[in-house]
Design brief:
Blueprint: E1 11-13, E2 16-21, E3 26-33, E4 40-43, E5 45-50, E6 57-62, E7 71-78, E8 81-86, E9 92-104, E10 107-116, E11 125-127, H1 129-132, E12 136-138, H2 157-162, E13 169-173, H3 179-190, E14 194-198, E15 203-206, E16 213-216, E17 219-220, E18 226-229, H4 236-249, E19 252-253, H5 257-264, H6 266-275, E20 283-284, H7 292-299, E21 304-308, E22 317-320, H8 323-335, E23 340-344, E24 352-359, E25 362-370, E26 385-388, H9 393-405, E27 410-418, E28 421-428, H10 434-440, H11 444-455, E29 461-462
Parallel strand pairs: 1-12, 3-11, 4-10, 13-14, 13-18, 18-19
Antiparallel strand pairs: 2-3, 4-11, 5-6, 6-7, 7-29, 8-9, 9-10, 15-16, 16-17, 20-23, 21-22, 21-23, 24-25, 24-27, 25-26, 27-28
Helix pairs in contact: 4-5
């Protein structure tokens, strides 16, 4: 709550003072006092608007320390006006106007600030008449009449945790207008973020060493804080290429391109899990038709599962009840020149599996999926049903290890309960949210945004590790 000084609490300002802007996460900045200027101004760059036209917001960054362009504070605020301002040299500029709390020596009051590039100015902020009001006396011959602050505050561990929430710009890479995509937009905007759905196949790339870019519908895409990939199986190669481009730019991607690629290649995925000693059904693969009997023998006896490597949502997965049926299915797949796996059928699972949703290295929700009557597949897309389920410590640890094996920050890990412990069927890098949110009643997308916000934290950052000058003042 701001404490506006009254007439009995007169403040004396010199022509330059130290002030704080707590709403913007700026604990110390030197401001020049200029009674000739009507509106206050704040040095800002990378200024961009976002949000609905009815309640527009602006994102910008600040160099609070003169001479330290490597030190950056990212900020955001609602736009209250757009105003034409004439500078001291007579130049006119149309600037965005925001409101922020100004704090001096324990006293706080709201001030209007215009955003402009003051990189050539020694003072990163200018205080105009509107901010000074009647409770401030100006002593034009002196400076720092109020207690002096220090730029050292920016180098403390406490500074990172005190930074205010900053609106993020999020890209959802998706070609579909489905529940998951709509929830990502809804939850992000509810938190004050700008969320844009980008059709993956309409993106294209400028690939070069100095300035790699992603373009979309004829324009370069803006600087995103994070990308949430929702890459369909049919466009995995191109979709992961787009994600690699964002990774090259330095954008945080919830799931990395390598993790998505390896999870989609079922043969490689099983090899990765085997390397990590993660339990899974006995699995075999062979290219030659002469090895059919040996292939079946490696897995065990019928019934068996024959699964296309490119299968999704239960499509291309066949249960062979007898050895003869397994041979027929294998021959048919080979006749189509299709790549496939042969797996042991876990009878005790009884047509049920468990989907564990892992976000940021934690299982945030789990549900039991049961196949439709007469169908051994439990996929919800095929008419299966789901309900919330309590999982064991071993199942939780298995799901976490499986997601970690693919380096995925978000994954749907499908488990079977067997007599030998949990067995991983699949690790999904683009899990749907509808079934698990409705069956568990949990805000799963909210947990995802918690993870994104913790990784893309609004705190001061240094753009260069070396060559940065020390504070000029």
């Amino acid at each position: 709550m701001t404490n506006t000084p009254d007439e009995t609490q007169q403040l004396q300002f010199g022509w330059e003072e130290w002030v704080s802007l707590p709403d913007l996460g700026v604990p110390a900045i030197r401001a020049k006092v200029d009674t000739g200027a009507r509106t206050s101004a704040l040095h800002a760059f990378d200024i961009e608007t976002f949000g609905p036209s009815s309640k527009p917001k602006v994102r910008f960054t600040i160099h609070p320390i003169p001479g330290r362009d490597d030190f950056v504070i990212p900020c955001s605020a609602p736009i209250i006006d757009r105003r034409e301002v004439t500078s001291s040299n007579g130049e006119k500029e149309l600037r965005y106007v925001i409101e922020s709390t100004l704090t001096v020596n324990g006293d706080s009051w709201p001030v209007e600030l215009t955003l402009t590039n003051r990189s050539t100015m020694q003072s990163r902020m200018l205080l105009g008449r509107q901010a000074l009001k009647d409770h401030i006396t100006i002593v034009a011959t002196d400076r720092f009449m109020q207690p002096e602050l220090s730029y050292d505050v920016y180098h403390t561990a406490k500074m990172r945790h005190q930074a205010p929430a900053r609106a993020l710009r999020i890209c959802v890479l998706s070609r579909e207008d489905n529940y998951s995509t709509r929830r990502l937009v809804e939850e992000g905007e509810k938190r004050g973020h700008s969320v844009e759905v980008i059709n993956t196949t309409r993106c294209y790339m400028a690939i070069n060493a100095m300035a790699p870019e992603v373009h979309y519908d004829g324009k370069r895409l803006p600087r995103f804080d994070a990308v949430i990939p929702r890459i369909g199986a049919s466009i995995t190669p191109y979709g992961t290429a787009i994600i690699r481009q964002f990774e090259t730019i330095g954008t945080y991607c919830v799931n990395p391109s390598a993790g998505i690629t390896s999870s989609r290649d079922k043969l490689y995925a099983h090899q990765l899990m085997a390397r990590a000693k993660i339990g899974m059904p006995n699995t075999a693969f062979a290219a030659s038709p002469k090895d059919t009997n040996n292939l079946i023998g490696l897995v065990g006896t019928a019934p068996l599962i024959v699964k296309l490597l490119e299968s999704t949502q239960g499509k291309g997965v066949v249960l062979a009840e007898t050895k003869k049926a397994a041979e027929s299915v294998i021959d048919a797949f080979r006749g189509l020149k299709a790549n496939f796996l042969v797996q042991d059928f876990v009878k005790e699972a009884a047509g049920e599996d468990i989907r564990c949703l892992v976000i940021g290295g934690k299982v945030v929700a789990s549900m039991k999926r049961t196949g439709a009557e007469g169908d051994f597949r439990s996929n919800l897309h095929r008419g299966g049903s789901a309900k919330s389920v309590r999982i064991t410590k071993q199942e939780r640890e298995t799901a976490i290890r499986a997601a970690r094996a693919f380096d995925l920050n978000m994954a749907g890990v499908d488990l079977l309960r067997s007599e030998g412990g949990p067995k991983v069927l699949e690790v999904n890098s683009s899990p749907g949210f509808e079934g698990i949110e409705r069956s568990t009643g949990k805000n799963i997308v909210g947990r995802l945004y918690d993870q994104i916000e913790s990784r893309v934290r609004p705190a001061p950052i240094r753009r260069r590790k070396s060559g940065a000058k020390k504070s000029a003042e």
